[in-house]
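Standup notes
- DV: blocked on the single-chain target, sequence here:
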Amino acid sequence: MHKGDLAALGLMALLAAAPAAAQKADAAASNKQAAQNRVVFQVNEDDSRKWNTVLANLNNVQEELGKVDISVVVIGPGLGMLKADALTANGVQDAMSAGVRFVACGNSMQAQHLTRDDMIDGIDYARAGYVEVMRLQGLGYAYIRP
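- DV (later): unblocked, structure below
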């Protein structure tokens, strides 16, 4: 065999192996992505219909992606939906049981004269909701504002 024939055979072997290698790389990337799915929802509306849609979307994301870190940062008028007596309280608690993290904006709470006693047990707090959204985005969270 000539040198050129050997090179051609080597190239053909590489090309034949490339699809399998690409599939392995795609599977590895997919597994890595599955472990790193992160999303932050920003909600700043006091509308129970919208909140029920958000709660349904949280469930949809979890069903589609499986393991996913979800945070919902609630700012301004949206805080009404995190109050212990809100119509959405049970839905929020169900989402929390499924691993969703809800974060109330401390600045908005102060402006609305709300205390932690007014809120659903187990939610988290951030001094500034928008800063929390920015922080999460810096950690690689996808941003959704429904």
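- Follow-up: The chain has two domains: 1-35, 36-144.
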